[in-house]
Amino acid sequence: MDSQRTIIILFVNLAWWLIAFLWSSQPLALAGEVPLIYPNNWPEIKVWPASSTLVISNKEGVLLSQGSYQSRPIASLTKLVTALIVLDAHPNWSAKYTLKNEDQRYGNIIYVYPGEVVTVKDLWVASLLASDNTATEALIQAVGLNDEIYYQKVEELAKKLNIDSDLRLIEPTGLNPDNQASARAMAIIVNAALSQPDIKETLLLDKYEIITQKGRRQLVTNTDSFIRGSVAVPDSWQLLGGKTGYLDEAGYCFAALWRNDLGEELVTVVLGAPTKEGRFTITKDLLDYITEKYY
Question: Domain 52-294: what homologous superfamily?
């Protein structure tokens, strides 16, 4: 019996020794190593404090995307679409227009008032440069459009740009939070808008003076902090034009077209930034990041 128990103990010990030997013969992972079924180098993930951010190179395609396919309120970025629709109506810039009570809209600084007579060019600049909602509504009326025709023109433009599933506008100013688009759609709109000299030249103005028919002078200033100089344009980049927007539901928005020293162009879109200046500092951060990664 004792000899039988001794044999069993020896057998068990031998089995454990063989297991230990086989285990020790495997290569040991060095500190910090992980099994090959897991990636050893994770891509860097950087999150910007905005609901949607997008950078698209007109040469390379999407360089950075964060929530760019989600439709959101776009506030006064709507006015880029409105500008394209107005241009399609072949406006007479020197034509006079008398503002009506029904043109009046609130939500931003008002530069022109009901009863005043100004040119179509004045309304155009006040709309794009300063996001004057009253001027935008008056501009639509001044070129012979109405809400029904405007909506129809938006649908036609969206189909032409292949963004009909990403763009929904119900009025021309952006005051309604149901005016929505994705960052992707906005990038396409920016490219289309900034290809028009009348839009590009207006968005690059620092200021503009309206003189009403009765002689009242009104200085209109650009809402773009890059143009005003309160936020520095990133090194090696030139701003070709940008548009701001804000609503409580939309947050602070900014979409722009840029060109670098190599001649390459890209579009930046920031939707839903938390602060007024934040939309510009986030844009600057995006460009700095893209420059470091790709240029």
Answer: DD-peptidase/beta-lactamase superfamily (3.40.710.10)
- Rounded Cα gap, residues 136 and 138, in angstroms: 5
Instruction: Evaluate whether 280 touches 254 at the Cβ level (below 8 Å).
Output: yes
Q: How far is CA 282 from CA 118, 185, 221, 286, in A?
A: 37, 19, 22, 6
Q: At what angle do helices 78-88 and 120-130 cross, to 10 degrees?
A: 160
End-to-end CA gap in the chain: 82
pTM of the model: 0.83
Average pLDDT over the chain, rounded to whole?
87
Is residue 77 within 8 Å of residue 183, measured between CB atoms? no
Do the beta carbons of residue 45 and residue 253 sit within 8 Å? no
Could you please report the per-residue DSSP string of 206-275? SEEEEE-TT--EEEEE---HHHHTSSPPPTTEEEEEEEEEEETTTEEEEEEEEEETTS-EEEEEEEEESS
